[in-house]
Design goal:
The chain has 653 residues and is an alpha/beta fold. The protein is built from 23 helices and twelve strands. The strands form three sheets. It has a six-stranded mixed beta sheet with strand order 6-9-10-3-11-12, with helices on both faces.
Length: 653
Amino acid sequence: MFGGAPAKKAKNFWPSFKRLLGLLKPEWLGMAWVTLLTVVSVTLVVIAPKILGDATNVIFQGVISSQLPPGVPVDQVVQQLRDSGQGQLADVIAGSGVTTGQGIDFTELGRLLLIVLTMYLVASLLQWWQGFLLNALVMRVVYGLRKDVEDKLNRLPLSYFDTRQRGDLMSRVTNDVDNIQTALQQAFSQLIQSVLTVIGIGIMMFIVSWQLALIALVSIPLSGVIAGVIGSRSQKLFTTQWASTGSLNGHIEESYSGLDLVRAFGRDAVMLDEFDARNSKLHQAQVGAQFVSGSIMPAMNFVSYLSYVLIAVVGGLKVAAGQLTIGDATAFIQYSREFSQPIGQIAGMANMLQSGVASAERTFEFLDSEEQTADTATEHLPERADGRVELDHVDFSYDPEVELIRDLSLSVQPGSTVAIVGPTGAGKTTLVNLIMRFYELTGGTIRLDGIDTTHLSRDELRGQVGMVLQDAWLFSGTIRENIRYGRLDATDDEVIAAAKATMVDRFVRQLPDGYDTVIDAEGGNVSAGERQLLTIARAFIANPSLLILDEATSSVDTRTELLVQHAMAALRTDRTSFVIAHRLSTIRDAHTILVMEQGRIVEQGDHATLLERRGAYYDLYMTQFRGDDAEAEAEHEAGQQQNPGVPEEVAAP
């Protein structure tokens, strides 16, 4: 799969972030449960160090009390120590709540440790449950988002795809959605937990010692400044990395798609040099981005280490002064370490969240793209239309400033074959695309059996049309499935009948697995001519009332062309057909030939009549079949028109 990088930096972070959060609204109940479970688990984890501190106090009190003379009041012991010049030790004992002669209370110690173990166990189970629920609801959200993207693809006009690279579109519908899922699962989960942890630990710090809590809080703005500076710099580098990745993937997609052409022109070395250049640029961008972004956590850790040292020193002094118990001091030191960890996680998630929001912005931009005009479907065709096509003063342009088709009018009777010829860029393919309503008219009307095509649903209109294009598109599957793609409810007998009518059966029977032969998307195990015959069989089984053949024989050899022409002749029977062809020898039997130049019909008539006029069609014919043979052929064609009983010869270049 080819595609660009997930995303660049979001251009409008907060609107995109708000809209991304809006995707979670249908899952509000699940999010409420996730938040509740997170709050409870964080509360248990935050309270546990304080209880461990109480357990430490039990041990310390027991050890100290065992060293004091039994039966002597603690106040008396403290006073004796002060009188002997040991005031600091006296302060420690006075502030520890020691009872002389008691020793370690193992019952109380066991109770406290059991409470802590239970709290950690319950917190772990709640975190697992929270993670399971969050992943489940995020996957449902992403499932819906993928469906929205797929539905959007089917509602976009072809003009949207004409102006965008395939690699970028692939990135938007695959990599960007994957990146959104990662951001929702990881960044949001850790952000919620980290923010709640910071709040909970902050509260507990103030409960234990507000002076030490103020020291710990000093690290927050410093950490924020560091994260902001490094994050801003790394985001610019990630932007370069994403752009380089998209450029490289676009080059790979183009190179692989046109590999035959690359080798035919001997451009392998040029392609590799271009790959090396883009790959080197990507490597440099990746190294820079990873180096800078990787420095966030070391910098945050350095700040936390400074805070940790300062808290340890001040806390030790407070213990020595009897203003803080040993247990509370150890609990606060643990809090200070746990306090810096979620702050670092928040900073570390900043880049992931930036990338996720940027991917969301690209996806929302895609979802907000202008769609094709809505179907009105005020009228309907019979199950099989007659095939009368009328173009009434049709105007069309891709660019409002450059008109492509101007005031074109045409009337095609049911069952007739209309050939369209002209130089490249004359508007031949555009004309049939307008009939298919792949593009909307700038002016005028196209009618099918007297009904304005804009009054029909696109599905109903296109259900009446079969197309055989120059590029024989097949999908991975069996030959039977590829033919049946034209009409999914066709029986096996109907598939075989269509294959026989279009010259497919003769070569399929020679394959080891026959109609069950599996072909890949490129049709690599069948020839170009056989692929084209398969597309004709696919159109045949659809049984359309209108047929469009766009350069269907341009990529096959002369012998195969005769087979394809025979198959197309069977396909055109009793159908209104539009044939676009550069090989004029393939359209001599057309009822009407349209010669187009710059979006206008400059000549119209049958083959012999147009040759007699010696106008634009004659010039095209003489250009394709040069010399005296062409002149003789032209005169012969005119004679054939007057003597239809004379067998028609195939013109040779």
